[in-house]
Amino acid sequence: MKKDLPNTLAGRVQYLRELNNLSKEQLATSSNLQLSIINDIEEGRDIFLSVTVRQKLSKALRVSLNTIKEVEKKVSNIEYTDQDIIDNIKFNIMSGKLEGHNCPKCNNPLICKTVTLRDLEDKPVTHPKARCKKCPFQIK
Predict the structure, then answer these.
(1) Angstrom distance (rounded) from CA 123 to CA 121
(2) Rounded CA separation 47/72 (Å)
(3) Is residue 48 a contact partner of residue 74, using CB atoms and an 8 Å limit?
(4) Global pTM?
(5) Which of 11, 60, 61, 139 could form a disulfide with 30 if both were Cys (CB 3.0 to 4.6 A apart)?
(6) 41, 4 Cβ separation under 8 angstroms
């Protein structure tokens, strides 16, 4: 089966979800993730995942962690700019300023939001997220 798996994160998650006869909503419920997270992954907006999201997805899809991890893109924020700029964007997002941020790499607008995930003790944790409209820059 491994040889037939799609080689993108979006394609692989969708393929495995369909292989398990799950809708996006059912996958969100069974993995205890927000539907918006599943949509972001399957639509190619998220190209790498947090450890918690990867664990929950692999469990719900009944595959090994590596089956998901091997198709994630390795994008380093530090590679694009210095950490102070990223920290400032994160702070502004968490303060409610979701618009007006530009990508430090290509200066195009960033799409910003906050997401609330659950930690391993099932407590809600809010995180800032941003992605560039034109290049692979992301803040996770």
Answers:
(1) 6
(2) 6
(3) yes
(4) 0.58
(5) 60
(6) no
Give the containing element (helix H, strand E) for 59. Answer: helix 51-61
What does the buried/exposed string (b/e) look like for 83-96 if buried means 16 or more CB atoms within 10 Å of the residue's CB? eeebeebbebbeee
What is the per-residue pLDDT across 106-120, written as a single tens digit (0 to 9) for each?
788 898 999 888 888
- Give the type of residue at 87: D
The CA-CA-CA angle for residues 90, 93, 95, to 5°, reads: 110
Distance separating alpha carbons of residues 121 and 118, to the nearest angstrom = 7
Amino acid, res. 137: F
Tokens representing residue 67 in the block = 């089956």
110-118 vs 124-132, strand pairing mode: antiparallel
pLDDT digits (tens, 9 = 90+) for 85-140: 889 999 999 999 988 999 888 788 898 999 888 888 889 999 999 988 777 788 87
* Exposed/middle/buried for residue 134 (C-beta within 10 Å: 0-12, 13-18, 19+): exposed
